[in-house]
């Protein structure tokens, strides 16, 4: 019984991967240059916590330290909008003595 000769390892073309990286670098630089004119434009970021039963009377009673009840479930993410357009979902997080927002999903 004769065993077949071991197969030679396939040659890996490292130059092809290097070429793809070189092509990606100018494309990335072009993309960054395309966005440069608008990077410093102001925009408004809002995190919305729906309060369907909130009334003007509740608004007038607001003071520092007042806790507002909501029917929003604790585990549900809240909508995150830029200039009114939904861009993702977030969750509230306490950071030191401040309330922060952590992005959980980008649409």
How would you describe this structure to a colleague?
The chain has 2 helices and 4 strands; from the N terminus they run H-E-H-E-E-E. It has a 4-stranded antiparallel β-sheet, with no helix packed on it. The protein is elongated, with a radius of gyration of 27 Å. The chain has one domain: SpoA-like (Surface presentation of antigens (SPOA)). It has helices spanning 14-35, 56-60, and strands at residues 45-47, 78-82, 85-95, 98-106. The protein is α+β, with helices and mostly antiparallel strands. A hairpin with a 2-residue loop joins strand 2 (78-82) and strand 3.
Descriptors:
Surface presentation of antigens (SPOA), 25% helix, 107 residues, alpha+beta, 26% strand
CA radius of gyration is 27 Å
Number of helices: 2
Gross morphology is elongated
Low-confidence stretches: none
CATH topology: Surface presentation of antigens (SPOA)
CATH H-level homologous superfamily name: SpoA-like
Percent of residues in beta strands: 25-35%
**Secondary-structure class:** alpha+beta
Number of strands: 4
H/E element order: HEHEEE
Mean of residue pLDDT values: 81
Summarize the structure in short.
With 107 residues, this protein is of the alpha+beta class. The protein has helices at residues 14-35, 56-60; strands at residues 45-47, 78-82, 85-95, 98-106. The longest helix is centred in the N-terminal third of the chain and has 22 residues, at 14-35.
């Amino acid at each position: 019984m004769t065993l077949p000769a071991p197969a030679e390892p396939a040659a890996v073309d490292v130059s092809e991967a290097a070429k793809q990286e070189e092509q990606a670098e100018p494309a990335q630089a072009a993309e960054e240059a395309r966005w440069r004119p608008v990077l410093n434009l102001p925009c408004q970021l809002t995190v919305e916590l729906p309060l369907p039963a909130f009334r003007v009377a509740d608004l007038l009673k607001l003071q520092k330290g007042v806790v507002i009840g909501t029917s929003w479930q604790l585990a549900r993410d809240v909508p995150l909008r830029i200039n009114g357009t939904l861009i993702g979902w977030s969750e509230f997080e306490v950071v030191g003595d401040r309330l922060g927002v952590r992005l959980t999903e980008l649409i």
